[in-house]
What does this fold into?
Amino acid sequence: MADNLVLLTIRGPVAELKLNRPQQRNALCEEMLLQLEACVDALAGEQHVRVVLVRGEGKAFAAGADIADMQAMSAIEAEAFARLGQRVFGKLEQLPQVTVALVHGYALGGGMELAMACDVRIAVRGAKFGQPEVTLGVIPGFGGSQRLPRIVGQGRALWWLLSGEWIDAEEALAAGLVTQVVEADDLEATAERVATRLAGLPPTALAFIKRAVYEGAEVALPQGLAQEAALFGLCFATEDQKEGMAAFLHKRPAAFRGR
It folds into this structure.
């Protein structure tokens, strides 16, 4: 029986996905990716879960894909490994819940790609980010060449990808790669505050925002606007829209019930 390389815990509306391979700095091997996929698939059906925190056990978020596993791969095996990582991270990105990466230590290579597949990224001061695959004679395989330019812009992304240069949390914040930088001692309180904020908002509207942003990024502006209008309209078929607007008009807190 395989070790539990990914731990899933659910406490009310908040779930936590924890990479659990600390001795290898949570390097992403095939078995870890498969376990992560199983957890993500399970979360997709958990309608009461509204927020998913993604983090790493030990001294790092994730130091990348496991080079020891990759070193002897054939071209065919390497492509299959890349497609596995892309599939798993794509499922994570497509979850209806809001996902929050809590990054400490290192988020390099596949670790940074995992963080970029989350909706929100919070970094501990001193955390390091990078796509150093070029220094190993390869390119990113789990979506780095595609998500990074969409997040920080093509010019900055190209430099980081071509140089393999690492950046610290403050530079990542300035570039828009992370949402917030906090002290290590404040990470838990920040995570709780963010999770509580998001868990109190209407989950259908949150899921629709994700769809509008991610799907809109793949099409021309007129199609993106049409999608936004359609999803806006669908919000008016939900109880949360009625509750949210009634609460606003009556000057009381809203009590959203969700999907």
Summary: The CA atoms of residues 121 and 178 lie 5 Å apart. The chain is about 50% helix and 15% strand.
